[in-house]
Design brief:
Elements lengths: L7 E10 L7 E10 L2 E6 L9 E4 L3 E5 L1 E6 L15 H13 L4 H17 L2 E8 L2 H11 L2 E8 L6 H15 L7 E3 L2 E2 L7 H14 L3 E5 L3 H11 L3 H7 L7 E5 L5 H9 L3 E4 L1 H6 L7 H6 L4 E3 L12 H15 L8 H8 L1 H6 L17 E5 L11 H8 L5 E6 L2 E5 L2 E2 L4 H20 L5
Parallel strand pairs: 1-4, 1-5, 6-7, 7-8, 8-9, 8-10, 11-12, 12-13, 13-14
Antiparallel strand pairs: 1-2, 2-3, 5-15, 15-16, 16-17, 17-18
Amino acid sequence: MGCLKSMKLLINNTTIVTVNDQDQILEHADLAVSGKTIVGVGKAPLDFIPDRVIDGKGKLVMPGLINAHTHLSMTLMRNYADDLPFSDWLFKKIKPLEDHLLAEDVRLGAKLGIAEMIRGGTTCFHDMYFFMDEVASEVESSGIRACLTSALFDVSGNGEALLAQGCRLHKDWNGRSEGRITVQLGPHSPYLCSPEYLREILIEGRRLNCGIHIHVSETADELSESRRLHGCTPVQHLSNLELFSLPTLAAHAVHLEEEDFKLLSENGVSVSHNPGSNLKLANGFAPVEKMLKHSINVALGTDGAASNNNLNLFEEIHLAGLMHKAVNNSATALPAKTVIRMATINGAKALKLDEEVGSLETGKKADLIMLDIRQPHLVPCHDPLALLVYSAQASDVTTVMVDGNILMEERQLQTLEMGPILEQAAHQSLELIERSQSRCPF
């Protein structure tokens, strides 16, 4: 299958949620795309002659969603290790599987995850895992946008080899696919990376001039262990090591102390909030309201499908819009406008892609999605932002475009074949489980 190649395309008579600096919502508006680029929002240029016109009546057009933290190929572990405490989930169920991962597992898991994300309106994702060449290859062929990191840690004794792989991934893939693929370094966490190893990663990050993707303060145990080992919180530990001198995205940031907010803000660290995963693993409620008050850029992520159990960013939007109202005992906490920005432009800022994507503005890349709002659960539409946060579902997405290429139209994937993906991924998952339970070396 192949995506519809870039052309001059006009979406007419539609509702546009721009997510620009003014958060403009345009009714009965047109959006014009030429090649990869948006050339008109509200109205097309006077001399614009489209190759194709898409009727936007009854539809809503918005920027594609950005999944700021996931482990894509954990789709093969979906529904495998549930209703367990975090440490048992990770060390007794998930890690034994990961110890037996093969490149083919990661490739098929990535393909399955990409299909799921495109169908749910995600146009860009930030991934950390293993065998990342396989993920990059699937990103390239599917047409989606991604920022990729190899998981780095030295507790198992092979930290140097992993770091070399991470640097090679950057050399081979950063900027590939006409810029759709970018690469950063991914130290897993302060608890799986020694201070010496984090310093090595910092040196390489400065050499490569790239960002950092790292788990930070996800659990209460992590916080107490950091205090025992380093005499400070994980955030303070990373700051002391000067890791934040590189552009950093901190995944989770659930357990923060007062000094942590200041350090994250002053160092321009972005945070990926993953409400579904944090709820399911009972890791707590990230203090998002307080982060925003400290001018910390907060994006949204799903985490991996082993702990979520899906890659549905509309579900994360819905959870974020509801749970912080209860946690803060305030119905005005995280209003719809804020949550939509978290899922779009804030994600782009976290990935350092906000000059290119994250909002619908003239000159930006044509990464956008269309939703059919002529649905019983979406009528009437008094407020498009409220509709997106409190009513919309991933299944309402009809069309997905990245770089001006249509990846899904009328719910039909254009670059991936669903049937073989589902069959192959299910088979590969069983093979992985059998491999991990076998006493024989593989």
